[in-house]
Amino acid sequence: MTYSSSLENSFSIIKCKAFYKTFSISIGFLLCFFSFSAFSATESEISQIRDAAEEYVTSTIDNPIGGTLKADAASIDSRIFATNCPSGLETSSSSTNPNASNITVLVECPEEDWRIYVPVRLTRTGPQVTLTTPLSRGQIISSSDVTISMVDLQRFRRQGFSSVSEVIGAKTKKNLQSGDIIEERDICVVCRNEIVTIKATKSGMTITTKGTALTDGTHGEQIRVKNSKSNRIIEGRVTGISEVTVVF
């Protein structure tokens, strides 16, 4: 055999080995691809996972009073491993904050040994008292000045009012514009130097008298008032327009 023939045979062997190596890699890649695709979640399975996460949130978080709660699960990568769960999906979450804007829900199938964490966004809407006309500082709010609007409670986190009865008769502490949501700091349900009704409650009995408020107050706040008859200064809780209740 000549040197050139030997060299040609060597090149042929190298080419053959390279071909088989490339062929093996290609086959391996295809097998991995089809194997991976076979175990990837279907559109139906992904939809079931998202629905389960949303249902968990809406069933465990209370709706705002007079409002609504909407849960929207994040998109899920279609390449995840998931299968139909024979006995149904299980859901849980470590989050306990009912006012959170996002909750991560664990969706799992113990029988098939897989689990997925799904972020769920919450949108809360609720009634808030809103002005229909501009008001100047010191004006008394009437029923024609206000209405109820449904607002996104995630964006409006300040203390407002959900019923018009809570603000009618109250006095504004600053200038307000039409469309403004009335906040507790915008009004005084009981205003300083105003004559108020003092309700003294003890053992189921209620005694009523008059007094003077020494500070501004909104619903539920504790303020100081001066009894008009005895001139005693006492502390009471604001329970209504120009009303303070003292419990002995």
UniProtKB/TrEMBL annotation:
A cellular-component GO term for this protein: periplasmic space
Gene3D superfamilies listed in its UniProt record: 2.30.30.760, Antifreeze-like/N-acetylneuraminic acid synthase C-terminal domain
Subcellular locations according to the entry: Periplasm
Entries under NCBIfam families matching the protein: flgA_cterm (TIGR03170)
Family: Belongs to the FlgA family.
Function as written in the Swiss-Prot or TrEMBL entry: Involved in the assembly process of the P-ring formation. It may associate with FlgF on the rod constituting a structure essential for the P-ring assembly or may act as a modulator protein for the P-ring assembly.
Protein name as annotated: Flagella basal body P-ring formation protein FlgA
